[in-house]
Amino acid sequence: MKAQRPPSQQLIELLTEYKVEVGELALGLRDIILAEEPKSIETLYKSYAVSMAYSFTEKWTQGFCMVVVYPGHVNLAFNMGAFLDDPDGILTGSGKQMRHIKIKTKDDIKSPYLRGFIRAAANLSRDDRKEAAMASKPGSKAGASTKRKR
């Protein structure tokens, strides 16, 4: 299914820095994200990599996922991925919040679990369940004070 919104000229220009196959992976993930969450806002960033962040606000820090483009692959990253159900251990990463899935081939984009993770991440971002999920995750310190006593 193709996204309802075509990619911007800015995005196309940013992707020309990469191999065609990698750009196609990025655009394929974009299509899936926009098909699942058509009201999401896409924000582009260029630093060491090109990133397409998706949120329901214009703040990438409040995003539910992002596509990060590297020379040989693309990551589908989830801002609150550590709090998503992942019984099969598909998500990788060891940070306190962020998790990702490495996409290397067109077959990787066809994986049925991608859409499920995107919907779950969007739902977590969209409502008050984020704080509850963080507080209930084993080892989570959500809600705990981060200030040190002196």
Structural class: alpha+beta
If helices are DSSP runs of H or I spanning 4 or more residues, what is the number of helices? 5
Task: Let me know the average pLDDT.
Answer: 86
Query: What is the tally of beta strands?
Result: 5
> What is the general shape?
globular
Q: How is the biggest beta sheet arranged? A: 5 strands, antiparallel
Feature tags:
150 residues, single chain, alpha+beta, Aspartate Aminotransferase, domain 1, globular, 5-stranded antiparallel sheet
Give a concise summary.
This protein has helices spanning 9-15, 20-36, 106-109, 113-126, 129-136; strands spanning 41-46, 50-55, 65-69, 74-78, 99-103.
Q: Can you put this structure into words, describing what you see?
A:
By secondary structure, the protein is α+β, with helices and mostly antiparallel strands. Helices cover 33% and strands 18% of the residues. It contains 5 helices and 5 strands; from the N terminus they run ααβββββααα. The protein has helices at residues 9-15, 20-36, 106-109, 113-126, 129-136; strands at 41-46, 50-55, 65-69, 74-78, 99-103. Strand 1 and strand 2 form a beta hairpin. The longest helix has 17 residues, at 20-36. The protein is globular, with a radius of gyration of 16 Å. Mean pLDDT is 86; it is low at 140-150.
